Fold this protein.
Amino acid sequence: MAGQIERNVPLECDVLVAGGGVAGLMAAIAAADQGARVIVAEKANSKRSGCGATGNDHFLCYIPEVHGEDPGEFIREMNESQVGGNNDMNLVRRYVAECFERVKDWDAWGVGMREHGDWEFNGHAKPGHLRIWLKYAGKDQKIIFTKQAAARGITILNHHPFTEVITDGDGRAVGGICIDLTQEYPRMQVIRAKSVILATGNANRLFGSKTMGWMFNSAGCPSNVCTGRAAAYRAGARLVNLDLTGNGAGCKYFNRGGKATWIGVYSDMNGRPLGPFVTKPSKEYGDLAGDVWREMFSLKRSQGEPVFMNCSEVSDEDLDYMLWGLTNEGNVGTLDHLKEEGFDFRKHMVEFDGKEGGGIGGGIDISVDAECTVSGLFAAGDETGNFRADMGGAATFGHIAGISAAKYSEAGRIVEAEHMAVVEERAAHYSRILERKADTATPSWKEINVAIQQVMTDYCGSDVRSEHLLTTGLRHLKRIQEKAKDVHCADGHEFMRCLEVEDLALVGELAFCSAMERKETRGKHNRVDYPFTNPMLNNKFVVIQKGEAGPEVDWRDKITN
């Protein structure tokens, strides 16, 4: 490709939503219900995009008639679950107060929230404890949300990946830049907006998968590559908890979600249970070992022992229930593979392993109203770094972000965002990539992406970290960033990927800086040079934002009341 990037005529709206996943569509719907004119910029197609593209079957939800009028026990279970530990408590309280309303919305819209007759809580649970994960049928949820958006007159720009927040001279968000990939050559699309909501999802493809080099074998949507985090950072917003990493468990070599959907027991190759929670398959509880004992897989591997999911004692009724759940979770490919290979759940066990490629656990620092530290900029879903509740979090804080942005926009005004300095800077940068000719001396986006994954996995992974590893890894990453300045593309699709790897490298750098700042071992942040957990750092979050000389790292208190 050669030539300057062409520009479309600017568009206008009250609220611009970056990303058409669950959080993005929920934000758009809520903003439109407040009377706002809304544009959603989506990289793929909103009917099948984001981490909820092919479904989900668990929604963290507090229902008073199920859990009791006092949410205290629910909150304790939530804080001790796989999504707890790094949430600001004011966000948790607001989530608990509003999540059931979003469940009722989904139920009214046609998502199967009561597929078996009533509210049903199964999986991700400790025996004898409150069950907090609502089981639902989410296979077609994105199609339903897209219809709801269309009914409200929301403009959805499919194949328009969001790349940049536009701010004015006062540092306020006044629009965004997207890349129009609907034509033969990419075009730059500026959107003027009174407020912007970032909902571009998790930081997938930052760390390598179990099948290194096969970048799209990812536990979440592989097109979610931290664009919102990078754009927020460049706009001056504060990021939080980038020292953390996220991973899980699943069928070996199949980086897919749904470990709590499996009704079985983690076992050795002789069928003996490995964890302390269950010895027989339980539809109600699952086997929590995969949630709370992430080291099980690496420990057993170091002992020369593989880990299996043993479903051989599941009843016929519960087996059908499990297959229904896995289908709604989007695990159809896994099930098809097992069927093709002649797998029999009664005779065979499925080998499980820790998943890689889960990205970082942190993101944009938001207020209880989903507002970032940049005026007029909001964020929701996996994009955020101080609250996590997975699908429920995307739904609930997406809704909160939409209302907040719409209310903010009531007093705002449209400015000609296309005349801001960042637009010319990015246009020049995009043009340089398009003008670059491919040859053996210039790297492709795939080479850059694989190199980033290798460095992040080896030097900033969750198994082992140290000052020397982090320093060496950051040095390698900076070299990759230099080489990425010569990256080339052959078409619009590759042009989008070139921009993605730049953002991946940037967020990787911020993760290295954050991890170096936390000089202790805490959770999956395993510093072998600081092997203890420092009680002086309890309830302390690492934050990072753009300074005049580069990333500036600091600390803030976790909100605990």
Remarks:
- The mean pLDDT is 94.
- Residues 51 and 221 are 5 Å apart (CA to CA).
